[in-house]
Amino acid sequence: VTGTYSYTFEDIENRPVAVIGAGTLGRRIALMFASRGGTVRIFAPRAEQRNSAIRYVMETLPKVLAQRDFGDVGGAIGAGSLEEALDDAWLVVESVPEKLEIKKATWDQIDRAAPPGTIFGTNSSSYPSRLMADAVRDKTRLCNTHFYMPPEANAVDLMSDGQTDRGLLDTLLRVLPEFGVHPFEARKESTGFIFNRIWAAIKRESLAVVAEGVARPEDVDGMFKVNWGVPAGPFQMMDLVGLDVVLDIENHYAEEFPHLPEHVRELLQSHVDAGKLGVKTGEGFYTY
């Protein structure tokens, strides 16, 4: 029924948000939804993942609010089950690994556990939500909600699964800025949405320049910093995201666009095979 997923901020400010997945992005998404005094429930299979994410949220939140002129410290709590995470949630954001079969299985479980009226958002960085909609009975409640790297990079891509309720998309466009994130809607289905599609081309060409021996990662990053005044270049950004995730994303683009160069993926694969995934393992293109 159209309209079931239309809310104002006042409707939802005292209702929880559920975040499924407690990795690099899951915990950062949870952070933003805890910044208006409300509760975020984090579900991940392992208790230590949940606890680590909660610690990150509670340690980082005061700093985020100090830099922002609005908001209140909310709470982040770990949920031992999807049912517990989803109880009375107005929104659930799925942030599990970027493998379609894992995402589909997760949405099947969320769909069975969610109360009516909960908006479904996938944080997939490259898959259209339509590809996960098989597992969801009411396809009007699902869309892409792709976060970048909050609290520093606060844009969000919104994209319909082809059947998403218009009121739901309008709700997210209206309500997400209340949490300090800024939504932009892709008007047509697009692998990589708006910005990630452009960013994928930048990453790919940066990797090609290094794979071909033209430059070192620090040269590419150095030129980005000098020319554009950005704090980090593409290789630092990839190390932060995780080179395993970057490779998954690039493999997905290559499935859709077979003409993409292989040596780029081979460079990433060599780092992944060596266990050099970036910041999270202490070494990637740089040593941490």
Automatic annotation (TrEMBL):
Domain 3-hydroxyacyl-CoA dehydrogenase NAD binding positions: 17-186
Highest taxon listed in the record's lineage: Bacteria
Domain annotation 3-hydroxyacyl-CoA dehydrogenase C-terminal: ranges: 192-288
One matching Pfam family: 3HCDH_N
Gene3D superfamilies registered for this protein in UniProt: N-(1-d-carboxylethyl)-l-norvaline Dehydrogenase, domain 2 (1.10.1040.10), NAD(P)-binding Rossmann-like Domain (3.40.50.720)
Residues annotated as site: Important for catalytic activity: H146
InterPro entries, per the entry: 3-OHacyl-CoA_DH, 3-OHacyl-CoA_DH_NAD-bd, 3HC_DH_C, 6-PGluconate_DH-like_C_sf, 6PGD_dom2, NAD(P)-bd_dom_sf
Pathway involvement of the protein, from the record: Lipid metabolism; butanoate metabolism
GO function term, MF aspect, one: oxidoreductase activity, acting on the CH-OH group of donors, NAD or NADP as acceptor
Keyword tRNA processing found: no
Keywords per UniProt: Oxidoreductase
Family: Belongs to the 3-hydroxyacyl-CoA dehydrogenase family.
Name by which UniProt lists this protein: 3-hydroxyacyl-CoA dehydrogenase
Organism per entry: Mycobacterium terramassiliense
Source organism phylogeny: Bacteria, Bacillati, Actinomycetota, Actinomycetes, Mycobacteriales
